[in-house]
TrEMBL record, chain A:
Function recorded in the entry: Membrane-anchoring subunit of succinate dehydrogenase (SDH) that is involved in complex II of the mitochondrial electron transport chain and is responsible for transferring electrons from succinate to ubiquinone (coenzyme Q). SDH also oxidizes malate to the non-canonical enol form of oxaloacetate, enol-oxaloacetate. Enol-oxaloacetate, which is a potent inhibitor of the succinate dehydrogenase activity, is further isomerized into keto-oxaloacetate.
InterPro entries tied to this protein: CybS, SQR/QFR_C/D
Designated name of the protein: Succinate dehydrogenase [ubiquinone] cytochrome b small subunit
GO terms assigned for molecular function: heme binding; metal ion binding; ubiquinone binding
Record: residues binding a ubiquinone: Y113
UniProtKB/TrEMBL annotation, chain B:
Record protein name field: Succinate dehydrogenase cytochrome b560 subunit, mitochondrial
Source organism of this protein record: Muraenolepis orangiensis
Transmembrane segments: 75-96, 102-126, 147-166
Annotated PROSITE patterns: SDH_CYT_1, SDH_CYT_2
Key word Transmembrane present: yes
Primary location: membrane
Keywords: Heme, Iron, Membrane, Metal-binding, Transmembrane, Transmembrane helix
Entry-linked InterPro entries: SQR/QFR_C/D (IPR034804), Succ_DH_cyt_bsu_CS (IPR018495), Succ_DH_cytb556 (IPR014314), SuccDH_FuR_B_TM-su (IPR000701)
Membrane topology: Multi-pass membrane protein
Subcellular location: Membrane
Amino acid sequence: MASIVLLSSVFHRGAKPLFHRGALLARPLVVPHKDQESPFLLSARIHVSQTVNAAAGSNAASLHWTGERAVSVLLLALGPTAYLYPGAAVDYSLAAALTLHGHWGLGQVLTDYVHGDAKIKMANAGLFLLSTVTFAGLCYFNYNDVGICKAIALLWSK
Amino acid sequence: MALLLRTLARRSAGLSRPHYAVLCRHTAPMGTTAEDEMNKFWAKNDKLNRPMSPHITVYNWSVPMLMSITHRGTGVGLSGAISACALAALVLPGSFPHYLDLIHSLSVGPALIGLAKFGLAFPVSYHTFNGVRHLFWDMGKGFKIPHVYGSGYIVITLSVLASLALTCL
């Protein structure tokens, strides 16, 4: 994800404040590196990917993160709504929110476990296909069959 | 982080007064992104055919670790189940009530029905409650270790209770 560099929080004046530092939520990505010219001074090579991207104008990753949380909250709200006001509107909203939440969630799983450019591309293509079929199937079910809310109600009535 | 602290401590033992402001001058931006570095790591280790270092088989499991992987497991499982249902809706010829009647006619017995309901309710409950816990973390709250454990136990308790309640609905 984003590599945030917080030099001020790492290179704090004096050693004591550094050790008693509270929860550092944004960890600096600093690589200690022995500088050839002055071997007794700590040199750090830092990742500036996020700042570089920010300069290039891309906050796509940040927006994606926010979008994920927004859909999660929406899905949370849809739960009781589906119970209290079952119907077509909630059915289609559930289909969309469930599919998107699942798509993004599985995307994170793939990002964690799949490595190598070709494998990542293939895995993401497969996931896209799965999500598309899932959404199509859920919409088909909502339109041609009883719908998600009614289906769960029937299933539970047994 | 620990490596950096240890290196700093070692350095400051040799110097009379470490001037950290001076150290800042020796930072150099790397040409590559963190993602590039990570890909290079995986490519190198794959090419050299190195075995994976033991991690989950060696590291002591903790409640937060277990809860985290369970959150992922329930998520993947639920997503798979939803996709399977969607696919079934597209492929199978009959309607949902038709297949439900088929299952009814099997006369499974109340115990198994209860078990099945609990089996469906628990992943949903757990993933929902732990999801809320995640959202609190996203707001920056509840990271202290006692709070992580405390909120974890609350999530487990609520999940079990909610699942039982839903089963008996």
